[in-house]
Specification:
Helices cover 5% and strands 37% of the residues. The protein contains four helices and 39 strands.
């Protein structure tokens, strides 16, 4: 009787084992797709544990705040890019080699979003070459990186360096904002070479790379805000963008293949932002805390504090502290010397208790339940427009199609289901009500009652509507009934409001210019207005030069111009009598009274 032999004892027979003499139950093979593309499936299908060829797994990104305090106020200034590099020199179990890191932006700098799947298929493809247009900055670019030198033994990170910036665009005068240098001397490892006890179980792969004592999963920083972004008409965009939709790609420099459709090398399409006022609790790692509080910019109400030498142990959750607002079961930290127009007063801090899985206030130790919500379904894209209502959480994501749909997670039965009938964007909730823009002949605003399960098209029109926001009985959105257009070809758009108590829709503003990004809270509606722009109906990046924030008081019917500054004030949000808006890299606040 013939039996399969398992020579290395990893549970995989030698007939199928891609490393016959090296235990690797996981059978990971980073460059499998490339090996198969050579035409001979048996030529070099070696697993990572025995393949000396260098290869890189992209692992994800984490926002980094380098300048918390009076000058910045919770802005994510950079991204930490995590990766796992496999490969080695015979007899050593590791090697040092330069690494290429590229990004490709999938939107115009002024916010014309591109569907993630279309982005991957048309703009940021898995091409066989690095395709870059230096005039319009479309295509793949080397990341503007900074990184510590990789060491094999403690302290692991030594001698931080940054990419020497150059001007690849030939601008006059020169603008030194391009990187043309790969990351230097990255550490590649042979998995399990230094841990002979691992490799016999599938779970050993994660155990090996997540061993924090040996820093095997490595990272570098990407200064994404200073990267060049697409400007299809060839006109430079200044200042650098505060938001982007991008893909990342990593590879060993000089390796035999360039871009190739290997999913582990590429990020999915993701959205990143610099100026944030988050509305949910965010978990900070120790790495993030190091940069969030580098020089103790916060003054604790409690001198012991969660960050002091006698503070409690455990991961930290933070939330911005609005002026005049506190919070239950939290400890407030105030900015030491904020300017008068600062958007936030400081941070609220909570701790996570890993023993019982609850969040508690580091001062009172009062606890509250923490629910973990697995808001993903199958092979889905990144969740966007995540909002919290009284009955659950709404989100925009795509699962089985290119376009996203509206999804709802119910607190009552823990279900997570698709609630839109067709493609949907810009989900937003208030209480039990959910709104979105749904694709019909043109996108229309849909209201969904999460209690009664009734869906209603609010105000059907032959032309596009989008970007809805809801507060109680009032819903506002961008509307094109007076000047035909859609989400991509916007031009002259207006703001409309629907009152659920009266069932009527009325214009908020029908000025002959582009109005965008409305928001509503109580008696106030605010929006982004381009009436003072040289071209009041801009569509392309070079045309966006002058925008202001306007507001309408629904009780008095009076419209006011909130800002009148040179340049662009964007994406306003209203909370009570305060309006928050973005200008350049900063968030500002202004009182409407």
């Amino acid at each position: 009787m013939l039996t399969d032999i398992d020579g290395d004892g990893d549970g995989v027979s030698d007939t199928c084992d891609n490393c016959k003499t090296t235990p690797n139950a996981d059978q990971h093979n980073c460059d499998y797709a490339y090996d198969v593309s050579l035409g001979d499936p048996n030529s070099n299908l070696l697993g990572d544990a025995c393949d000396p060829d260098p290869c890189i797994y992209y692992q994800g990104t984490t926002s980094i705040n380098h300048a918390a305090g009076p000058a910045a106020y919770n802005k994510n200034m950079a991204l930490r890019v995590d990766y796992r590099a496999v490969g080695y020199t015979a007899g050593q179990g590791y090697k040092h080699q330069n690494m290429d890191a590229y990004s490709c932006a999938c939107q115009d700098v002024n916010g014309q979003l591109i569907d993630p799947e279309i982005c991957k298929q048309l703009h940021c493809k898995d091409d066989s070459v690095v395709s870059t247009n230096r005039r319009t900055d479309e295509g793949w670019h080397r990341l503007i990186w900074s990184a510590h030198a990789d060491a094999l033994t403690p302290p692991f990170d030594i001698g931080k360096d940054s990419c020497p910036l150059v001007d690849l665009d030939g601008e006059v005068p020169p603008v030194y904002n391009d990187c043309n240098t790969p990351l230097q001397s990255r550490l590649f490892r042979r998995p399990f070479f230094d841990t002979p006890d691992l490799g016999h179980a599938v779970a050993d792969w994660e155990a090996y790379w997540t061993d924090t004592a040996n820093h095997r999963t490595r990272a570098f920083e990407w200064d994404w805000r200073n990267q060049d972004y697409p400007h299809p008409d060839g006109t430079r965009y200044e200042p650098p963008t505060d938001h982007a939709r991008v893909r990342l790609w990593l590879r060993p420099e000089g390796f035999i293949f360039d871009l190739y459709p290997i999913p582990t090398h590429f990020s999915d399409v993701m959205n990143i932002e610099a100026a944030l006022i988050p509305r949910v609790w965010a978990l900070l790692t120790n790495y993030d805390i190091e940069y969030l509080f580098p020089t103790s910019p916060l003054v604790p109400d409690n001198p012991l504090g969660p960050f002091g030498p006698v503070g409690p142990v455990g991961p930290v959750f933070v939330h911005p502290l609005a002026w005049g607002h506190g919070g239950a079961e939290v400890e407030p930290y105030l900015w030491a010397d904020p300017p008068e127009d600062a958007a936030t007063a400081g941070l609220l801090v909570k701790r996570f208790n890993p023993v019982n899985g609850e969040i508690y206030d580091p001062v009172t130790h009062e606890e509250q339940d923490l629910e973990c919500l697995p808001l993903t379904v199958g092979k889905s894209s990144a969740i966007e427009y995540l909002t919290l209502g009284s009955t659950g959480i709404a989100a925009q994501l795509s699962v089985t199609s290119i376009a996203p749909y509206a999804w709802f997670h119910s607190f009552s039965d823990a279900s997570f289901s698709e609630v839109s009938a067709s493609a949907a964007w810009f989900t937003h909730m208030s209480g039990p009500r959910l709104v979105w823009a749904e694709a019909m002949a043109q996108s229309q605003i849909v209201l969904y009652d999460t209690v009664t399960k009734v869906k209603t098209v609010l105000d059907p029109q032959p032309h596009g509507q989008w970007l809805p926001r809801i507060d109680g009985d009032r819903i506002v959105w961008v509307d094109h009934r007076n000047a035909p257009g859609d989400m991509v070809n916007q031009g002259n758009s207006d703001i409309y409001l629907h009152d659920l108590s009266s069932g009527k829709s009325t214009p908020v503003t029908i000025n002959a210019a582009r109005q965008d990004h409305p928001d509503v809270d109580g008696d106030w509606v605010v929006w982004e207005d381009w009436r003072n722009n040289p071209n009041p109906t801009p569509r392309y990046s070079g045309e966006f030069k002058e925008s202001d924030i306007f507001a309408l008081n629904l009780k008095t019917g009076k419209e006011i111009q909130v800002t009148n500054l040179p340049g662009m004030e964007l994406n306003p949000k209203v909370d009570g009598d305060r309006v928050f808006y973005i200008k350049g890299p900063l968030i500002f606040m202004k009182n409407l009274r």
